[in-house]
Write a structure and sequence with these properties.
TIM Barrel, 360 residues, binds iron/sulfur cluster, three-stranded antiparallel sheet, 14 helices, Arc Repressor Mutant, subunit A, 41% helix, globular, alpha/beta, 23% strand, 17 strands
Length: 360
């Protein structure tokens, strides 16, 4: 069982970001968020969790006493199975030795939003993190010895060439992280910089291939379109969610999924604090199955017959094989199909968006 908690505060808004977050330094609003989260967790009938993912926003934007209160709230309400994975996202400019020490005591995994080691490229997309803050954050994480840690990178950035991308990949792979996420910059209508970024499909494809080739030199393997890890260090929370497992979600804009229906909390701090009802996403079961099928095709391993049959109410594996054969006719070479497994090829992963649309 999996739990996601959304912390909606950021120090500033990055130009490309379409996640729900608010630039808020008001301690009173932070207190209201923490109190409301505490109430919601205490009043929910919660199972024992195998994974927790705290994302945002910038969860590490809390100051030290707030972070202590946040952890006290989690500690009081959440129970975990032995060996559970507990992840939190952090931005380099928010980390202090005391905060990292606190996070290390509760979380088994930290994910650092670096995006690029090049200060000019970071500034081009509105990331306000100095060289000194970045170096300090890396030193702190390396010293804290989290069991697992991730570096987030973005490619296809304005002003970025393949040499710069290679430097980012090699720096990330050499800094001790066992997991690297590489996302291509996508223009988002809702973002501050909106459509200011032009998409360059050709450059994106070149950089996508470079990521796999270069990170492999460091024994960091692609296991999902945008995610790479040392074998055994994959993010279990994300793997579980991609496979359509149940998810409890808390905080504004958080989604939860009971195996059939998805509920999405309001993407507004004000409405969430007022207990506004979540949006309910009910779709026919066949469509939900198609959605689950498409999402896990993002992973390099794709679907194994047994894995598919473990989904309560799943249709026949033979139906999925038939669907895969049809997709193969539309996108030749995009799938690897055997009686027991359906997965996308390297090229297929690059065209996942189109393939998913076809499935849905
Ligand atoms: S990318 Fe992250 S840090 Fe930047 S505004 Fe979005 S949530 Fe905040």
């Amino acid at each position: 069982m999996n739990c996601y908690i959304h912390v909606p505060f950021c120090l500033s808004k990055c130009g490309y970001c379409a996640f729900f977050s608010e630039v808020c330094h008001d301690r009173e609003i932070h207190r209201q968020y923490l109190d409301h989260l505490d109430k919601q967790l205490k009043s929910a009938a919660l199972p024992i969790f195998d994974t927790l993912y705290v994302g945002g926003g910038t969860p590490s934007a809390f100051d030290l006493p707030e972070m202590q209160q946040f952890l006290d709230i989690l500690q009081h309400s959440l129970k975990f199975s032995p060996g559970a994975e507990r992840s939190i996202e952090a931005n380099p400019e928010t980390l202090t030795p005391e905060k990292v020490d606190l996070l290390r005591r509760y979380f088994t995994r930290i994910s650092i939003g670096i995006q690029s080691f090049d200060v000019q490229l970071r500034s081009n997309i509105g990331r306000q993190c100095s060289e000194a803050a970045l170096k300090n954050a890396l030193d702190l994480i390396q010293t804290a010895e989290f069991p697992h840690w991730n570096v987030d990178l973005i490619y296809s950035l304005p002003g970025q060439n393949t040499g710069m991308w290679e430097r980012d990949l090699r720096t990330a792979a050499s800094c001790g992280a066992d997991h690297i996420s590489c996302y291509s910059l996508t223009p988002e209508h809702d973002a501050v910089m909106g459509d200011a970024f032009a998409e360059d499909d050709e450059q994106e494809a070149v950089m996508f291939d470079m990521a796999e080739r270069i990170l492999r030199e460091y024994n960091i393997e692609r296991y999902e379109i945008s995610n790479y890890a040392h074998p055994g260090c994959e993010c279990r929370h994300n793997l579980n969610v991609w496979q359509g497992q149940k998810l409890y979600g808390f905080g504004p804009s958080a989604a939860d999924f009971d195996g059939k229906v998805r509920h999405i909390e309001p993407a507004s701090l004000e409405l969430w604090l007022q207990n506004a009802a979540p949006e309910t996403d009910v779709i026919p079961w066949t469509e939900r199955l198609n959605e689950i099928f498409a999402v896990n095709l993002r992973t390099v391993a794709g679907w194994h017959k047994e894995m598919w049959e473990r989904i309560p109410g799943a249709d026949l594996w033979e139906n999925r094989l038939g669907m895969a054969e049809k997709l193969q006719k539309i996108y030749p070479g995009a799938l690897n199909i055997s009686p027991e497994r359906i997965k996308l090829s390297g090229t297929g992963l690059l065209y996942w968006n189109d393939i998913a649309q076809e499935i849905l």
